[in-house]
# Entry
Amino acid sequence: MFYSGGVEQVPFADPVGAIAALHHPLSRRTYELVAERGWIGRDEAADALGVGRPAAAFHLDKLLVAGLLQARYERTSGRTGPGAGRTSKLYHRSPHEVDVSFPPRRYDLAGSLLADALTRAATGQTNVQDALAEAAHDTGTRIGHQAAEHRGRTTPRTALIQVLTNNGYQPHQHGRDIVLTNCPFHTLVDQHPDLVCQMNLDLLNGVVDGLGCTEKIRATLKPTESQCCVRLSPH
# Structure
């Protein structure tokens, strides 16, 4: 968990686990209650749900650990200073969004890149296609830089595979190449193959650049049936 401005949050790492946390009917009712009322304490939740305080606390904390809720501590008595009483733990819906698809898709990322490209092109200094190439490469570079900062002792290639996995590409080693067995932009590729495949290529070369492995590996277009159109090969 981490704290931001006194608010306790759990970074999303497992969206499937977050969805699974709602499987129990009482957990689902608890989440809906918090979403409806905003910041809510354990006693208020227990009263609204018609359960004991321990049960309400259990399901609130389960949703907090899953990343679906956030929490903070404050005095609810309205008093301050000595004798004001203990602080209460209050819960609120997390700002994180949960999006699960099988196989993995990243249409949110594609939408962000296209919106960025339109904003850049609106200046009149570049056309939309060039703006999209710039936006995709810049975003990929930023993703690569972030991965490089947290890769520890792992090699750039291992860090690259982890980035690809995190973004839904389902990478596999094929000799010295990295083959991407899933396209996160599948439906968009069916509709606009040239535009989206080039965007994908620019994005992944940005990731490679950001990780600092440009001299060792490069992304190239190599369309293959039932796979991503991009392959990463020794440079």
Summary: The chain has a mean pLDDT of 87. Residues 128-149 form the longest helix (22 residues).
